Amino acid sequence: MNSITAPRGDPRLEALHAWLAVQLSGAGYTLAPASADASFRRYFRVTVADATRIVMDAPPQHENCRPFIRVAELMREAGLHVPTILASDVEQGFLLLSDLGVTTYLQALNEANADSLFGDAVNTLIAWQRASRPGVLPLYDRALLQREMELFPEWYIGRHLGISLADSQRAVLADIAKLLADNALAQPSVYVHRDFMPRNLMLSEPNPGVLDFQDAVYGPITYDLVSLFRDAFISWPEERILDWVVRYWEQAKRLQLPVAADFGDFYRAFEWMGLQRHLKVLGIFARICHRDGKPAYLEDTPRFLAYARAVCGRYAPLTPLIRLLDELEQSPPRAGYTF
Question: Do residues 270 and 245 make contact, with C-beta atoms less than 8 angstroms apart?
Fold first, then answer.
């Protein structure tokens, strides 16, 4: 007997049950939600006898399973611990995966274990970066960087705050976007997970298990490090982040990854890359709320605004963005706008 039946109006779940019945040779199973996701994908934990599996439901009109399958293969070849693909139907958008456990880094991290857990994560990141080859993954090019940064004025400022920017304000954002894109494109390129954050790392053996890697690209070497240490859902003191970044940089240099020879240059690139990601995520969280009906992500907006202000305050070319953020905070939302 299956524990989740397809409610009226959810043909995807009905089709998933039919597919699972074939993959599991008719064995009885239970199905329970495994994790929330900011995309259109859903994940369920399948229990058959004493074993568990994960099934991904990725509606093909919104999601493509093929990049997940390809990047999983690349990561496995690099020695990373990723889910094994046990069965797939890319036309329907279903994947049956091995289960890497129930505890994410986000749930497990605390003051006492952070050095150890982040040490494991950095080892995994370096293994991924050392496997890098050009021409394998899509480029993290200027066009993609620009599309990402346009999410901030479109969705966070325009849709969420309900503010129409003046020409002078648009010019400030354009200047900042160019500076950040130039910084990203000046960095050496490696494989980039693109969301290498504690929520996508699982406590496992070997540690960590890596999830949600389907958007991987070939791009700036600091990007995944920023995702790890300046996370959307958990913050750490700047002194501790600096120490972890130094440790990564020293290890990367020893292993001949193409990091900057001077740590000050590397850390500046890290911080500017972080600002690009923070502005992008502010836009994404607003879009998830207003387009997809998932408002919980906006609860972490203050964390990203704080990241952005701190970085801009340390570098003179970025300070115009602080003034723009001040102006936005002083502007009331348009009449009739609801959050």
Answer: yes
Give yes or no: residues 82 and 143 share one domain: no
Given 71, 98, 125, which residue is the final one in a domain? 98
Q: What is the pLDDT along the chain (339 residues), one digit of tens a residue?
A: 444 444 456 889 999 999 999 999 989 999 999 876 656 889 999 999 889 999 999 999 989 999 999 999 999 999 999 999 999 999 999 999 999 999 999 999 999 999 999 999 999 999 999 999 999 999 999 999 999 999 999 999 999 999 999 999 999 999 999 999 999 999 999 999 999 999 999 999 999 999 999 999 999 999 999 999 999 889 999 999 999 999 999 999 999 999 999 999 999 999 999 999 999 999 999 999 999 888 888 888 888 899 999 999 999 999 999 999 999 988 544 333 333
User: 50, 78, 98 — which closes off a domain?
Assistant: 98
> Has residue 3 been placed in a domain?
no
- The total number of residues shown for the chain amounts to 339
Q: What global pTM score does this model have?
A: 0.91
Helix, strand, coil fractions of the chain, as percent rounded to 5:
50, 15, 35
Residues 69 and 147 in one domain: no
